[in-house]
Amino acid sequence: MTAITADQYHSPFERSNRDRDRIRSRSSTPGFRTAATIFGGVAVSLAGIFGILELSSRHTDKTTEAIILRLDSLQSSQHDMGERISRLETRTDARFERLEDKFEQIDQKFALIDRKFEAIDWKFEAVDRKFEQMDRRFEQTDRKIDRLDGKIDRLDGKIDRMIDLLLDRAR
């Protein structure tokens, strides 16, 4: 068996001059040039599109980070505002409780004033009853005085008649 070396085989890429001319003639056709131009344009367009997508994704990543930072700061602000509102609600509740206590005290004072007015009304009623008793006594006294006046008038009349009789007899 004989050994075959690489230089004994012809290269599949080696072509004859005639083949090279035929390839050159094909590549120079207008259709091939148009196809190559279109392919080149498509390749450049795709490269541009992918470049834009890459820039957009980098920008989106930066925007996303900025949004996340902004959301974190907003959440922190919201948390702070929530705590402040909670403190304000606590203060407001305490103030309302104090107001309710004051209103209860005022209600108690009004109840005390009402009881005092009732006591004063009862005292006025007692005074009115005493005045009524005094009025009845004055009426009784007036009737007694009227009766005494009547008796005195009758006695006066009797005395006048007696004096007249005595004067008539003495004359």
From TrEMBL:
> Key word Transmembrane helix present in the record?
yes
For region Disordered, the annotated ranges are 1-28
Q: Which spans does this entry mark as compositional bias, Basic and acidic residues?
A: 12-24
Q: Where are the transmembrane segments?
A: 34-53
Q: Which UniProt keywords apply?
A: Membrane, Transmembrane, Transmembrane helix
- Its recorded name reads Uncharacterized protein
